[in-house]
Amino acid sequence: MSLVPEFQTSPGMRDILPPESARWRRFVEVFAQVTEGAGYGQVISPLLEDLGVFQRIGDATDVVTKEMYDFVDKGGRHIALRPELTASVCRAFVQHRPATPWKVWYAGSQFRYEKPQRGRYRQFDQVGIEVLGADDPYLDVEIIALGWEFFRALGLRQVTLLLNSLGEPADRAAYVQALQAHFDANLDALSEESRVTLQKNPLRVLDSKRPQDAPLIAAAPKIADFYSDAAAAHFAAVQAGLGALGIPFTVESKLVRGLDYYRHTTFEYQGGTLESAQNALGGGGRYDGLVESLGGPSTPGIGFALGLDRTLIACDDEGVFPAPAAKVDVFVVDTTGGLQALQITAALRELGIGADRAFENRSMKSQMKGADRSGASFAVIVGSNELDAGTVVVRPLRAERSHNADGTLRITDDTRDSTQVTIPRTDLLQYLQKALT
Ligand code: AMP
What we know:
Helix 1 (20-36) runs antiparallel to helix 5 and helix 5 runs parallel beside helix 10. Strands 1-5-6-11-10-9-7-8 form an eight-stranded mixed sheet, with helices on both faces. A five-stranded mixed sheet has the order 13-12-14-15-18, with helices on both faces. The chain has a three-stranded antiparallel sheet with strand order 2-4-3. It has helices at 20-36, 51-58, 62-65, 86-96, 137-154, 169-185, 192-200, 202-205, 214-218, 229-244, 290-293, 308-318, 339-350, 364-374, 384-389, 416-419, 428-435; strands spanning 41-42, 48-50, 70-72, 78-81, 102-111, 123-132, 159-165, 250-251, 262-271, 280-287, 301-307, 330-334, 355-357, 378-382, 391-396, 400-403, 409-412, 421-424. It starts with 19 loop residues before the first helix and ends with a helix. 38% of the residues lie in helices and 22% in strands. It is elongated and about 95 Å long. Adenosine monophosphate (AMP) is lined by residues 84, 112, 114, 119-121, 124, 126, 280-283, 305, 307, 309-310. Adenosine monophosphate is lined by residues 84, 112, 114, 119-121, 124, 126, 280-283, 305, 307, 309-310.
């Protein structure tokens, strides 16, 4: 008989089970703390949008043209599962017209029909922020710094910040022309794939990781030579701001975003431990025209999206941000049938004390194993003697920490029997409340 179940997650989709799922939730909590502490509010968008929302914004990108999950719903609407959240945030801005600057954060799953591999899935999670309605280089700095602070809060140390500016739209247009001319003049040296990309968008040739393209890309014109005075001043202010906050960065002139909407600042956070094809933890930039393309007023925007999955891989590599330990405070062991455990766990939970128990009237030994596995600090034990006497046994489960005479830490975990106490049942709640503080 085959042991492979008939149904499994489809390619690129995963179940996130405990305790890893608690780590995911904590990840979002840390992001919320960092961003809400800076005046950002959460926007919760639908998983589905009209296909047009994404097409308006990214019709030149693979994400939109090749990787979207789209379908016609029962009402005949052409719908897509969101592949990213900037488009939804801009759509929401146009729909609700909030006061500007509108500072929002988000978290959730995105869907892209990509080739699954480590760090690349078809359903993956992102956290991100967007600010609509403010055009100020120090906002660019605030945004970049919040991403940086978030990685620090997770404990990551090997993150690199890459920074670039695409200049004003006219600077960028002149640069694209120069790039086109450069690659046109050397077409024979370019890989076949990049020749196809060149026809669609010369900027995206710079993203090619094919060795054949490397010399030509290295010799390509640099965006910095095309900055207007205003663009150069904006970029200088961003760099000065990051310097003032002590955030290290590397200017990377090849860091361009394919979409025409991007202008001025672009940035990317790279994980130092990840393979280069999947080392982008996240990135973002300043954009214009997204809100307009969805029917709203001309509104500047800036934001970033960070990949949860890859960032957690980076955390594993650096040995930081482990899954939080399972969190019950007390495990009730009841060998009298289970009613005592039912009442005691309910009373403890009502007081806000995390409590778990065993079921199926297992043996004392088996229930104590469960108590150990639960991570609880105390076992409360009720056997027939205790039941008759109106008492309970409270047994500390955690290893005892104390100090040796020379000041070194001593950890002993065989203190259980000597430290367990028998107390009147009526004193239990008060006793535990005190013991757990
Ligand atoms: P993007 O929206 O393409 O700029 O992606 C932002 C971040 O999301 C990337 O740096 C990755 O960390 C993450 N990401 C993008 N696509 C995937 C994917 N298919 N699987 C896992 N993470 C992804």
